[in-house]
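Could you join me in thinking about how sequence relates to backbone shape in a protein? We need material for that, and I hope you will provide a protein of your own picking. Once you have written the record down, we can walk along the chain together:

…
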Amino acid sequence: MNKSSNHASSNYIKQAYDSSKQSSLAPHIQSNSVHCQLMARELNLHPTSLFFFLCLTNVFFTMARASLSDHLTMDNFRWGGEKEDAIEKINQNQPPFATDCDLSIGEWVFDASYPLYEASCPYLSTQFSCQLNGRPDSDYQRWRWKPQHCSIPRFNALDFLNRIRGKRVMLVGDSIMRNQWESLVCLVEAVIPNERKMVYSNGPSTIAFQAKDFEASIEFSWAPLLVELKEEEENKRVLCLDCIEENAKHWRGVDVLVFDSAHWWTHSGKWSSWDFYEEGGRVFTNLNPMVAYEKGLTTWAKWVDLNLDPRRATVIFRSSSPRHNRINGWQCYKQREPLAYLGHSQRVAGQLVVLREVLKKMIFPVYLQEITSMAALRQDGHPSIYATRAHGGQEQHSNTEFLVSDCCHWCLPGVPDAWNEMLYALFYSTPNN
């Protein structure tokens, strides 16, 4: 989207936004007006009485109420990095969505009408702002994911906001999920007037974007392992495999939950995020990483089964995002276009074998969103040396050992936008309510 098209469409967006807002308020006002009439009738009062007037006045003031907007710099909200790479292919669990198309099989096609938002989106962290950090090429922003057997509707911000009206959408996981959260916020924020949106924090581990006129929020909750990682005496880090409430307390009352957990589970030794395991009150050190992963996911699955109602909440588990850093962290350096889809499935990694088995045992229907194989084709989409502004413009540096190449996270606009278009397709395939 170029700046001239932004200018040309600004009036249309404002009119569409106002129309969407007005059409949404009318049913509420009408419904509450009827409520006032019924109350007046119950009290044997005439519809022109002072009571009826005050009741309607309260309705209008309630609908118009809004707090001041608050803009927070995204770099104020920082969480840890990632430690795992994987390329895998998995099957989908039975979804609560009316879709029979496998969105994960397809190809990346160049589309000059992309990206769907500007690289200057104010809600992007420095780490993902590759253009502002000096990345010289921009074609990585213009690749659209095209499924083989169906099509994904182009992301429509106003339609998405209407579909989540009155709801909370929360993305839960690691910094890759934070990457996706910033993408989703940037996809919707441009159609909302500045005074009608805000970002706020609910504590050190949560952040939320609020669309006031839609009474909707898009939130992020930091929980890279889902279960609890505690710091005990002498700075010893303990991963409690059967403890989850400190993280899960943020998930209660949320309408749509999107989870991921993969990268933090795989490394050991000096790369490990913990020193000890704890389970059933017993503390120990030696445990197969895949066994630990299964125990942690099982704790999460039990919490979902016991605490969430499938009639009121939707749960999605996003598969792991691949890293392209197997060659000393430089596999994504100077990459400029996607790999070709060869028409065969990638290998199934141990983590997603475990995940699939855990989901099969659950009572709650969880949709498994498969993004691993599609993202595996996009080694061009990582920040590489453009994750910080200090490295911007240093591509011709003669000695790369002094640079850091991030082949884990994703530039924005970029690959996570396609994940959110897939998410939008899942909403799009269901009724508007």
The domain at 74-428 is CATH 3.40.50.1110 (Rossmann fold).
